[in-house]
Structure formats: structure tokens, C-alpha cells
Amino acid sequence: GAMDPEFALSNEKKAKKVRFYRNGDRYFKGIVYAVSSDRFRSFDALLADLTRSLSDNINLPQGVRYIYTIDGSRKIGSMDELEEGESYVCSSDNFFKKVEYTKNVNPNWSVNV
């Protein structure tokens, strides 16, 4: 169970810093999130929070329902799959638009500040 010390040990509490982009939005510089199980109880809670941050009438009007790896090769299905320092693309629909998301960003953004 959750109170089991071994479980607590393996379930690292440290937040993972990841960057999220909007599907098909090549001008958006991305938003950096610290994702942790303390802050987000579930993957759905993360999607809901991303919706509040990223969704407007033009971009992702249906909200954030899918998260893709930056190259679109696979969909993220849980917070465990998010990796420290990586970038991901948020989408309303089950379709990845390939644009150069990271070209607006200093490549060293994830170096410890």
C-alpha cells in the first residue's frame, strides 16, 4: 500500500521538470511544469491543469486530452512516462501535428538554474 516504506522509496517525490507545447502551434515557446504525484493526484488531474494553462478559443479549444512525445512517436498514458527535462506536445485530438516545436527555445533550458 501507499504507506509501505519501500513503495514510498520507489515512488520518488521529486518533481520532474518537463516542457509542454501546444499541438501545431509553432510560435508557442512551451510552458514548463514541475510534475509530481504530490501536485497531481492523477494523469487526468494533470490534463485538467494543462487545459487551464494552454487552452483558449484558438488553441486546444477542446482542452488537453492527449500528450505526445516531442517527435510524436508515442502517446503518454501516465505521469510515470514523463521524463525529467523532456518536452511533450499537448493535443485536443488523437492526431500529432509535426512542427519544429523546440526551435524557439534555448537548448540549455533544463540545465540547473
Number of strands: 5
Q: What order do the helices and strands follow?
A: HEEHEEE
Strand content: 15-25%
The strand line-up of the biggest sheet is 2-1-5-3-4
Give the terminus-to-terminus CA distance: 36 Å
Helix content: 10-25%
Task: Give the overall form.
Answer: globular
In the predicted model, the low-confidence regions spanning at least 5 consecutive residues are none
Q: What would you report as the Rg, rounded to the nearest angstrom?
A: 15 Å
Given helix and strand content, the structural type is alpha+beta
Describe the main β-sheet briefly.
Answer: 5 strands, mixed
Mean model confidence by pLDDT: 87
Give the helix tally.
2
Give a concise summary.
The chain is of the alpha+beta class and 113 residues long. It has two helices and five strands, in the order H-E-E-H-E-E-E.
In words, what does this structure look like?
With 113 residues, the protein is α+β, with helices and mostly antiparallel strands. Helix content is 16%, strand content 20%. The chain is built from two helices and five strands, in the order αββαβββ. The chain has a five-stranded mixed β-sheet, covered by helices on one side. The longest helix is centred in the middle third of the chain and has 12 residues, at 43-54. It is globular. The model has no long low-confidence stretch (mean pLDDT 87).
List the SSEs and their pairings.
Elements: H1 5-10, E1 16-22, E2 31-35, H2 43-54, E3 66-69, E4 75-76, E5 87-91
Q: Which characteristics define this entry?
A:
alpha+beta; five-stranded mixed sheet; 2 helices; 5 strands; globular
